Amino acid sequence: MTWMVTGGAGYIGAHVVRAMRAGGLRVVVYDDLSTGNAGSVPDGVPLVTGSVLDRRALDAAIRDHAVAGVVHVAGKKQVGESVERPLHYYRENVTGLETLLESMVAAGVGRLVFSSSAAVYGMPDVDLVTEETPCAPMSPYGETKLIGEWLIHATARAHGLRCASLRYFNVAGAASPELADDGVSNLVPMVFERLETGGSPRIFGDDYATPDGTCIRDYVHVEDIASAHLAAAHRLEGAEPGTDLVLNIGRGEGSSVREMVDRILAVTGRGGVAPEVTARRAGDPARVVAGAQRIRAELGWSARYGIDEMIESAWQGWRLRHP
């Protein structure tokens, strides 16, 4: 069977494509290239340039490539931008998913792996965030991901869709330097950018109720994220109609922002640089760490890579793009 990866030319999507090919699956990429890079699509993998808002283009891609399953990675993902442009985020993330589901149902495509986010949880006051933790998103971005899960649940009930919604925690690292994250909205590349411009890494608040006063997060290597998508795709291939999984993707281990910054400075050889502590950012919870028991039970998946491997691989990519 052929799997279509929407957003397969982007940072996470490109890793998913490679993992699925290495796992023996046939893949076609569907991407509007608004943030993706056509050069990230491996040789031999078809690339269809189109928007998830374009029903005709989706119908044609599914028909022309005999698509039997979809991994939906495409979407807008910047929390701050979503606050400034909520209508844009709802259109791209919610209407785009609705259009994709309509195309899938019409064509009889019965399997979907959905890239969701830990942003659906908001500010949970728990040591480990499990899939049963109440969802209370604090941004339009998180809202669109939760609404996307609701749309998928309803479609699974009505049409027998086999689906898995994967809630990512904090993604970092790269499988190879050319696939590294070039954005600066995540902590690791954000620190790299500050170092490149001669600045000090920023820590937003050091007065949280944590051991060193800085926020604690669960960081996951992007290769582990990709392997979870492969495991979910394999799980759905033999699943009963109506199978509807919601799974966290995390390591189940927390690292504080200060710990991460110190390790980034060590890897980059900038150990003498002192971080700059600034005011808290609105909406940052003190601790968000994944409970990862369910994904191990359902998919037999667990993370393989640690923090240093994430930072070192990301740094190699940053140096390639910013020599």
Structure write-up:
Helix 1 links the parallel strand 1 and strand 2. The chain is 40% helix and 18% strand. It is globular, with a radius of gyration of 19 Å. The chain has helices at 11-22, 55-64, 79-84, 86-107, 140-159, 187-196, 222-237, 257-267, 293-299, 307-321; strands at 2-6, 26-31, 47-49, 67-72, 111-117, 162-168, 170-172, 202-204, 216-217, 219-221, 244-249, 255-256, 276-278, 287-288. It has 2 domains: 2-171 and 220-249, NAD(P)-binding Rossmann-like Domain (Rossmann fold, 3-Layer(aba) Sandwich); 172-217 and 252-321, UDP-galactose 4-epimerase, domain 1, CATH 3.90.25. The N and C termini lie far apart (41 Å). With 323 residues, it is an alpha/beta fold.
How far the N terminus sits from the C terminus, by CA atoms, comes to 41 Å
Strand neighbour order, sheet with most strands: 3-2-1-4-5-6-11
Task: Report on the biggest sheet.
Answer: 7 strands, parallel
| Helix/strand order, N-terminal first | EHEEHEHHEHEEHEEEHEEHEEHH
Instruction: Note the beta-strand portion.
Output: 15-25%
- Give the tally of structural domains: 2
Count of helices?
Answer: 10
The counted number of beta strands is 14
Rounded to an integer in angstroms, the radius of gyration calculated over CA atoms is 19 Å
Mean pLDDT rating = 94
| CATH 2nd-level architecture of the largest domain | 3-Layer(aba) Sandwich
SSE blueprint and pairings:
Blueprint: E1 2-6, H1 11-22, E2 26-31, E3 47-49, H2 55-64, E4 67-72, H3 79-84, H4 86-107, E5 111-117, H5 140-159, E6 162-168, E7 170-172, H6 187-196, E8 202-204, E9 216-217, E10 219-221, H7 222-237, E11 244-249, E12 255-256, H8 257-267, E13 276-278, E14 287-288, H9 293-299, H10 307-321
Parallel strand pairs: 1-2, 1-4, 2-3, 4-5, 5-6, 6-11, 7-10, 8-13, 9-14
Antiparallel strand pairs: 9-12
